[in-house]
Amino acid sequence: MRHLILTILLGFSSWALAQQVAFEPDTLSALNPWTDQEFAQPDDLFQFAVIGDLTGGYRSGVFPVAVDKANAVSPDFVISVGDLIEGYTKDTAQIQRWWNQFDKWVGKLAMPFFYVPGNHDLSNALMTRLWEERYGRTYYHFIYRNILFLVLNTEDGAPSRISAEQADYFESVLSQHSDVDWTLLFFHKPLWQEGEPGFSRIETALKDRSYTVFAGHTHRYLKQQRKGRDYYILGTTGGGSELKGAEFGQLDHFAWVTMRKEGPQVTNLTLEGILHDSLVTDETAPLVDCVLKSSTIKYDAIVETQASQEWVTNLRFRNYCGQPLRIKGRLFGHSQLEPDWARIDTIIEAYGFLEKALHLSTDQILWGSKLEPIELDWSVETLEGAFRQSFVESITIANANYCEKPPSDLVIDGRWEEWGRAVYQAPAKLEYYRSAWQGIEDCGLSVRVAANENNLFLALKVQDDNVFYTPYRHSWEQEGALLEIKLPNQLSIRLGFSPMDSLLVDVNDNWPREGELKATRSKNGFAAELSLPISHLEQLNAAPLDQFQLQWTVYDHDHLEDQYKGTKALWQNPFPGSGTFFLQKTKH
User: Fold this and answer.
1) Which tens digits make up the pLDDT trace of 454-465?
2) Is 8 a domain residue?
3) Which residues make beta-bridge pairs with 519?
4) Positive/negative CA dihedral, 157, 81, 55, 105
């Protein structure tokens, strides 16, 4: 009996000792860049999760789901690769709101969470100071079950930089812990791709030890082999992504790492399933990239100038890959338009180009712009079918618009009165947080376009029942607008602005020195007037100008949000020929 009690006591002591020494932080202070939940009970192996980027185009609702899924699979802890909040602002209150929201999310994890900074988190000196006030160190290390974890800061005093002091720190850490079973590195930007000197020093210090690297930033998954080790770049866990699919490295996921004595085993858990660690590798990345680049149809704009019975365009496919690609497609039936072909199934040779004419006709004389688009369901794939992308392309007949005569009393002062009653319309297309748009009162647009012999005049009036302005954001992060004029030679003039107390202009591409912009704000929106010399447009076009394309984009941010939950409202639905204006004053 005495022997049994001694055995139990020894076993309990060993367990307690393991609990005490399993986690060894570099420094324990009042502020630490990790949460204080208890670790799971030690075992022969352990598992942890690595989350990807949340921001750079934050998508609402994804990360909270990832938290729930992490709790369901119960890793020992969760660690990030940075970009946890949107950042790029000097609005202290907004930064604190973002961090409060993020901390609230990770507070629902049943295990510790380790913070890793990214460029969005440390985008200026103020944000770095607020990080240090909340979480302490921006780079650190710890040991868990004799595995050395290194957390680097790739924004150390400047973008894409590891300072000499940080490199000194990790060289010292590595020299002091040569007897660990494995070393794992976590940081945001994949600096090995840039040859950054501070990171090169750390790589040199790693020498012949066993290690694995995890990074983020690109929003595209990639597994690389470097110096005989695995280097992973993770996809997103709610950050900006086109989400083309796992085979293209564009997915929401977190990496699931099982740490064994022989090294880490990495799998990828999407929010719906489990994927292996070789989603995209150095070997497959070139093919993935060229298939994505080839996944675009271009077609000639069909711009009507009169009622007709026939229209024609040319569809253009280009293969950017060094191997053949197969193009397949079928045109959906249309109630009034009759195409001269219905299906396409062809192979485009390596680096090849295909142009296919499409004739559309009707048995009535119609304005084609009044018709619904005809849709092509098509796909591009490698011949063995390993990589495939499918789309539906809408082929639309555009309406021809004509510049009106400017008001006789026109003064470029940002006021609408000379233009008469504003006729508001709903945006033709919504992006960002489409569900945030609550109707034409929330964001409605009225646009006027006029010209005389010398100048092009543009007027915009925006109706907004809840306006928001701040000097700490760009024009697209508050109530603002972006003008784009595309010339026949495809050159664009772009101007982004917000009518704050003093006019904010933060996009200025090819805008002429003689051009004028005035904007005024009111309780229920804002207005803007612009004037451009036609001679400047013709100079940029390198030819006389008889037409151009116009697009207005309006940004609607109703209040202070957690992660810029605003709406991007497009005046015209973007397709070839949309927003075409002729300089004639009256319609022929």
Assistant:
1) 999 999 999 999
2) no
3) 528
4) negative
Nearest to 559 by CA among 428, 465, 448: 465
Q: Phi then psi for 81, rounded to 5 degrees?
A: -120, 25
Which residues of the chain have a pLDDT value below 70?
1-21, 40-44, 560-564, 585-588
Q: What is the rounded distance in angstroms from the CA atom of residue 108 to the CA atom of residue 37?
A: 11
CA distance 352 to 354: 7
Domain containing 235 equals 51-283
Give the end of a domain, one of 283, 308, 337: 283
- In this prediction, residue 386 carries a pLDDT of 84
- Residue 352: name the closest of 373, 311, 376, 380 by CA: 380
**Cα–Cα distance between 442 and 465 in angstroms, integer?**
5
pLDDT at residue 562, as a whole number: 56
Domain CATH number, residue 359: 2.60.40.10
- Max distance between CA atoms of the chain, in angstroms, equals 108
Compute the distance between CA of residue 475 and CA of residue 461 in angstroms, rounded to an integer.
16
What pLDDT sits at residue 41?
A: 57
Residues 349 and 390 in one domain: yes
Two tokens at 74? Answer: 């119960």
Q: Give me the sign of the Cα torsion angle 216, 217, 219, 221.
A: negative
| CATH number of the domain bearing residue 124 | 3.60.21.10
Closest by Cα among 126, 53, 97, 83 to 561: 97
In this prediction the pTM is 0.76
